[in-house]
Every structure is written in structure tokens, then in C-alpha cells.
Amino acid sequence: MADFVKGLFGGAKPSVGGAVPSADSDFADFADAPSPTPASLSSTLSAPPAYQTFGAKIDISDRPFTKWYNVHERVTWSDFKTEGFVIPFLLLTIFIHFWGVRSNRRRANAWIRSHVNALENEFTHVGFGKKINPATVSPDVAMSAGDNINPEILREKSKDVFLSYATGRQNVACVDVKLSLLKRYNPFSLISELGLGFFFESMAGTGEKAEITITPFDGKEAQYFRVREGEEKRFKDTSYDGFIFAIVNKDAMRKVREERYDVSLTTTKDHAKLPPWVSVMSESAEVTEMLLTQELANAIKECGDDLESLIVTDLPVDAPRTLDELVPKKRVVLTLKLNSGTNTTSLFSYFLRMPDQLVTSAHFRPEVMRRIRQTREEEAKKVRKIVEAEGAEDRKLLSDKAKKEQRDRKLKGMSADEQKRFLEREREKDMRKRGGRQTMRA
After folding, report:
1. % of the chain residues with pLDDT over 90
2. Any idea where the domains of the chain sit in the sequence?
3. Signal sequence: where (predicted)?
């Protein structure tokens, strides 16, 4: 302590040469440690090299066989339970998809092969491409065979919808063929559709069917091809009176009435010429007697339960919402259950010749057509009322919008006090209106 005080106040300093400072007690252990020396490089070079187990120059026999390589010791079959369920399920789904696609193609080809002769006998051009000469090509190319579809005759729109086309006949503009099949390629959709159809009648599927639509000329040849001046007289009159006539399978009658607006305007009756499982839906008894020939009745009996409907119409399928949709558009539609058998060929052939019968005989007495036109005029009045009601509603919305914009402009040009008085007058006016309504109700 005395030395410390002397140092502060400039006391005598110890001599430098005679005294040796003592080491710090905290680093006493390192005071006598020797200085580090660098390691000898010769000892490092003389050490043996490390043993390598991997690399391009190492043979596979020199690599250690450890447990890391033993896959059978690290995993068991229980580790692949999920894959054991997923992989077979995926393989089964893929197999069903390809099987369903090929099955639908075979069914469509079988139907077109059994009915293509009737089309070729009645029309000069069948299919979408150039006309094929069967004498110069093989039969498999001339028409669809197996699951190989000839796009010239049958076109695959989707995996469950196939189309065909024919034209080149007197009184007929064209024929459209649509084949609708089950979605065999998609088991999930097929099971859900069949399941819902089993429990809910409104959600039942349409099944497999062939829908053939004939579009007659009806005196409008100029809309389908070019007619030179002075050549109109070459074409005979192909027009006929518009009406609705149908022969419907009783099992499908409810669905046809619900889905088709035109058929819903007819009356249903049984006929002595027809078997008991079909009914006639017509606008007039005279129309029925003209169209229902004995040949047609025999063809329907031969067709059996494969017939779903035969419809002659000039009105749209869906309920019209505008007057333009009520413009007559004449068509003849045949719907068959998809069957490759030959029991439907006679009805199909008769169906293709029906436009000739319509052009020749479908000209009725004025009294008959007066009743038919009266039905169409009533439907036109209903549509006109709907259009006028929609127009009145639109006009009311526009008027309310204009009044609101005028009110907003008035409020913007007013001061705060004027706006307050304006809103109070509006509130009083609304209260008086409500009070008057309550008085009227009482």
C-alpha cells in the first residue's frame, strides 16, 4: 500500500536493471511452456495413405459390403402397403379406359356397318370426305371395321359420341347421325351415372341410342346451294304443311314430353295399327291417318322395343323465349336404341324415304291447318307476353336508374341545410305512401 501511495505522489522509483518482474499468478501454468515448433514435413510424407472405398478407380470388389447395401435388411414388404393398393388400382383403371374406348368404337362401327347400305342406297354421298369407290379400295377402308374407324364415314367426336353425315337426295338437304354410348372408358363417371339414375329418376342417363335427323328442303333449296337465275323452275315444289306428329315408346313417353317442347303440344292416343307398347302423339287425327301407313306399322313391329321415338316436327325442341325461335324449322327425327342387329334396318330405310311422302301428301284441308295454326298463335302470344314483361322490367330498371342519377345531381348542387330539408321531405313522402298502403290493406 505504501508503494502504491508513493507511486501516486511521485515517490522514489525502483531501479530498472536490478529488479526482475514476477510473472502474473493467473498465467503461472503457461509461464514455463516451451515455444511451439513447426511439425516435420518428412513424417507426413512417410505416413501410409488412407484407404479409399469410392471413386472411379476403385473396383467394386474392393468396396466394403456394409448394411447400407443390404436393402432386404433395411426395408420389408410392409413398407409398400400403400403402393400395393395404389399401383394395381391405377393399372386396373388404365385397362378399363382402353377397354372402354375400344368397346365403344366396336359398337359404333357395328351399327354403321349394318345401316350404311340403306344410306348409300338413298344418298349419293355418305360421310365427311370424298366418295369412296368400293371397287378400288378394300372393304375395311370403305367402311369402318372392328375398332378401326374410317373418318370418311364415321367421325369420333369424343370417346362416347360418334357422328356421320349423308347428303345428295331429292327433297332432303342432309341427314345427321349421332351415336351416343355409355362412358365405358371412365368407370367413375359410369358408376355415378348409373347409381344416381337408379335412385333418382330425374337423373337417369339417356343410355345408348342412335339419333338420326333429316333436314328437308321445304322449298328452300337456295339456302343450301347456289341456284342460277332462271333455274328455279327446274326444281319442283318441296314444301309441305307444318305440323307435329310422333310415335313414341311408352317407356320413354314421359321423358320425351319433359325434354321436348314441340311434342308437349300434342295429344296422345293409341292406334289399332300399332303394337300396344307405342302410342301416337299428334295435333290432328287427319295427320295421323296420312302418315301412319301399314308399311310403317309393320316396320315398327319388326323393330320391336328398340324404337324410342319417331317425330315429325316444325317447332324447336326447347321452349322458345323469343319470337324468332318460333320460326318453323321442319325436321324428321328417329331415335333408336343402339343395336347392331338387323331388326331396325327396315324402319331406318322407311324413315329415309319419309320426306317423299311428306312432300307428296302432307297438304291438309284448311280446317285442319286452322286448328294447327291456332295452337302456334297461342304459343306466340305466350312468348310475346314473356318478352313484353321482360322489356317492361328492363325499362323500369332504366327509369329507376335515371331518377336516382337526377336525384344525386340535385343533392350535389344543394347546401347542407337544403340537403337536410330535401331528405326530410323525402322521408315524409315515404311515410305517407306507407300509411296509404296500410289503409288500403285494412
Report:
1. 35
2. 159-369
3. none
